[in-house]
Amino acid sequence: MYTTLVLDHFRNPRNGGVVPDASASGRAWNEGCGDEVQLSLRLEGGRVAEARFLAQGCLASIACASRLTELVRGLSPGEALRLDRAALAAALGGLPPASQHAAQLALDALRAALAGAPGAPP
Predict the structure, then answer these.
(1) Residue 74's domain is classified under what CATH number?
(2) Is residue 119 part of a domain?
């Protein structure tokens, strides 16, 4: 049902926790299933230098938040905002249809973090 990469990010999440002195942070919550993702970012030189997450929820939500922290590192806020659900799911080797909401949840936390962040597009 889940790819090896999804399972690996669930079992061995990358970049867990909160960025000290974060430049930006955001939270997203799925009221349908109760999953929650909080994302914190440190921006340097107009790029994401560090990204960390806290998550409560299903296997897919934790895996998506973990993988997203890897994907956004080095991107400008504008580039990060162009990531979409299909790109995040593909970066995990795919997600079952019933788990697509997890990718959207992680991206919603990213958008919340970048709303008003230094260098973020209006």
Answers:
(1) 3.90.1010.10
(2) no
Give the span between the Cα atoms of 115 and 122, in whole angstroms: 8
Listing from the earlier edge strand, what are the strands of the sheet with 36-44?
24-29, 36-44, 47-56
Q: Do residues 11 and 100 touch, judged by C-beta distance below 8 A?
A: no
**Within a domain: residue 106?**
yes
Cα separation, 32 vs 14, whole angstroms = 26
pLDDT tens string, the chain, 122 residues long: the values are 999 999 999 999 999 999 999 999 999 998 888 999 999 999 999 999 999 999 999 999 999 999 999 999 999 999 999 999 999 999 999 999 999 999 999 999 999 999 977 767 76
